[in-house]
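Hi L.,

You mentioned the student needs an example of a multi-chain input paired with its predicted structure. This one should do, with 1060 residues in total across all chains.
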Amino acid sequence: MMTDTRTDIITYGDVVSVYIDEKRNFVIRLVKGGILGTDKGFIKHDHIVGKSYGEFVRTSRGVKAYILPPILLDKLKLLKRTTQVIYPKDLSFMIYLSGITPGSHVVEAGVGTGFLTLSLASFVGPQGRVYGFDVNKRRIRILKEALDVLGYEDRVELRVADIRRLQIDLPGIDAVFLDIPDPWDAIDTIYRVLKPGFPAIIYVPTVNQVEKTVLALREHGGFISIHAYELLLREYDVSKGATRPQTLMIGHTGYIIYARKVVCE
Amino acid sequence: MMTDTRTDIITYGDVVSVYIDEKRNFVIRLVKGGILGTDKGFIKHDHIVGKSYGEFVRTSRGVKAYILPPILLDKLKLLKRTTQVIYPKDLSFMIYLSGITPGSHVVEAGVGTGFLTLSLASFVGPQGRVYGFDVNKRRIRILKEALDVLGYEDRVELRVADIRRLQIDLPGIDAVFLDIPDPWDAIDTIYRVLKPGFPAIIYVPTVNQVEKTVLALREHGGFISIHAYELLLREYDVSKGATRPQTLMIGHTGYIIYARKVVCE
Amino acid sequence: MMTDTRTDIITYGDVVSVYIDEKRNFVIRLVKGGILGTDKGFIKHDHIVGKSYGEFVRTSRGVKAYILPPILLDKLKLLKRTTQVIYPKDLSFMIYLSGITPGSHVVEAGVGTGFLTLSLASFVGPQGRVYGFDVNKRRIRILKEALDVLGYEDRVELRVADIRRLQIDLPGIDAVFLDIPDPWDAIDTIYRVLKPGFPAIIYVPTVNQVEKTVLALREHGGFISIHAYELLLREYDVSKGATRPQTLMIGHTGYIIYARKVVCE
Amino acid sequence: MMTDTRTDIITYGDVVSVYIDEKRNFVIRLVKGGILGTDKGFIKHDHIVGKSYGEFVRTSRGVKAYILPPILLDKLKLLKRTTQVIYPKDLSFMIYLSGITPGSHVVEAGVGTGFLTLSLASFVGPQGRVYGFDVNKRRIRILKEALDVLGYEDRVELRVADIRRLQIDLPGIDAVFLDIPDPWDAIDTIYRVLKPGFPAIIYVPTVNQVEKTVLALREHGGFISIHAYELLLREYDVSKGATRPQTLMIGHTGYIIYARKVVCE
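Structure written out for the whole complex:
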């Protein structure tokens, strides 16, 4: 088994996660003279440079702050919320169902805040491509800035466009992801861009949209294995002899619809 | 945007998914003279060769069977169940939380039936590595055969070994996944093999194991961001004007514990 | 505090619950020479007579069978299922929301198998009245027979009638319960029979019916505090150090709608 | 069918529910010269007297406030929260499982804020008895005041006592309800006071208490049909074409344990 000789000394330009506690964790790009201010004191970027991942620095008030490599969940914090986001419990299931692998080419619309775009970019890797569309120019611009910070500019192509009337050529798409208010109007596009045998994954917040989308997929024809799902996530508070689910939970985010393209007769 | 020129004409040796309906879908490797028998009639492999994905053949009884590219969910059907499996709702969340990307090196124990092993192999891609351990020799052998069919032999290294007493050198591990009865006994190993800042994801079926594992992680030290989760998945029956969740659901599979390694003082 | 001097010696004519295990429990009326046959052996009614509640008899195969007083959950077993039933988790919440007390007068339609009718009869007591309606003559007859066995004939009045076109005079109704396919067509009746300030509780299986009913209540006017709920029940398997929810659960039964009548201007 | 001739003209001394909207509803006893202040303006009790239920008055700022008969859910608002309360979804299921009817005699400990005490008093009616115990003298006193306002003084007997060491004579108890931290220490008492064949219903917030209680019931012997449950309640936001569950929900309250006493050999 191979031995890793990479060194992980943190330097200027690196994007790092700074973890004080569950409510105080941040993702920043290190710049000379930079300052991260928190209600537990501030941290000079210069103090972070030279550290290794997993080590801590202390804030001006002496509170420990761990410096961590930014993994997927951290990276989401770089995105500026311009719309309702899709939560990790749903993102993960959508991506798993899609069957994407490193190198996959996928279409996504609308990108919104970009939680799904960023997640897809992470999983398809540098050989993959995410073609992201949104009708809102500003959202596209804001998302592009964040993705560039992460070095995802080569694997994500964002465009201001309406997926329902998409005219560009996109052959060889391994999965289509939709998070738009009227997915039933985009079914022709989905069918056109998807490679035969590959899936579309659609996210909608209301039950009415579930019904309308599923009925439209059936009516359109050329889709099999149509399913609609809902996921509930509960977190637990663990303490010795007194373990229980947390009192408050998110009771609803959205529904996930899955369908797979086949060749129409 | 690039144009895909791959052709997808199916040939002998290909692993394909054959879909008759939700209850009758199969994953097979095509061999000359091969036969797939179903209660809706049989299909000759020879009839599938030459087709493209998304097209259908007919069984001996005239029933349509769609030929699909095997995506992740299909591939799981290749695995022979030697133990309780982890379900896709949990697999997906575990993988998402782990933050793995194409090229990641991960450790997994015990591999059991291999639902997680196969999923990890799919997501880390050909540049990644899955080091899988299980104490059961037979399970390892059965799993290895299935992974070889999928061409995953280069990215998965399976070994009969007890993760709780693992002596081999495994530097540079980006995530550790555990599905063993006593994860609290493997925390030293987890801590040793994980790169600082990276996460461990532990799956356990009972609440008692959740409590014992979380308390052991806290006691061990060197772990932050410790969480315990549970996911519930509901599927919906959609019909016009009569949409509702399905009557029966899986009410419990297991709990997911997350923790991130930091450097101990 | 008072002393109870009732004796509970079981005699012919008594309705008793016979409990062998969770899957083998029965409710029977004791008759001379009667036999209860089970796959664990048979029990002669004559052997039960003379026992006290909580004691056991043995079946012909020597298996213990406890003789219990029939409480509400037992009594439901007397009902012959002629339609989909409402489950205890929903029955209980509907009854609680309704605010009924001993002596309440309530209307119920359609009665169907009678799980709700019997439950209401139990809670309103001998001074209360349940006016039950159903369009199906056979269902009414079958339910009436079972309720008579329980001695509920004086507190339950069943009638073959369509609640949507109910013409009879029913003043002073403290709560209305509906389990019909189109509750939106019965809102005029609900409003007419309910005393001002009192609630209607409506049970429907699909989300579409929830929406249509709630919108109809709002449109009708004269209703406040309109809510729609769903309940999920999980049972736990408890064993030392290995406690967890049961694997299978009922993922859906129906939705409960609540609304309270006020005086229209 | 009988005709109701009761008149419902509201007068001084009546306890009424005042409903402005879902967040502004109150339960008050009307006194001459009384004032109900709200952030939507104040209401003089004198203006409510002479109204009938279901009618509205206007606040000093012209906002409608409906005057409603106080049903069970309203009455709970009279209780001053001295402890964690049991929620209606759990109260209702506990009461349903218990099988109590008008006239039942029940034991409850600890009474705490009294949500269950009040609910039991409502369901057992004037012929029933609720024997309520709590170790906290102040809680008992505060609860007693509220129950007296509702006219429940004859049907509820509250006592400062520790159920685990209860010495008084309580024959003929139809159901026992426990909401104490260590129900396993009260199992002897439960067994002693319950009539054979009747149930105990125990409410606990943590999974550990579920396990410990169920194991103690099994170990004690003399209990059958032991079950542990959990209920989840979701409320729906209904609007035309956009119906969905509410975003936030209560993810956990407590677990409900059920067991039925039989005669030990």
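You could point out the following to them. The helical segments of chain B are 45-48, 72-75, 88-98, 115-124, 137-149, 187-193, 207-220. The longest helix of chain B spans residues 207-220.

Best wishes,
N.
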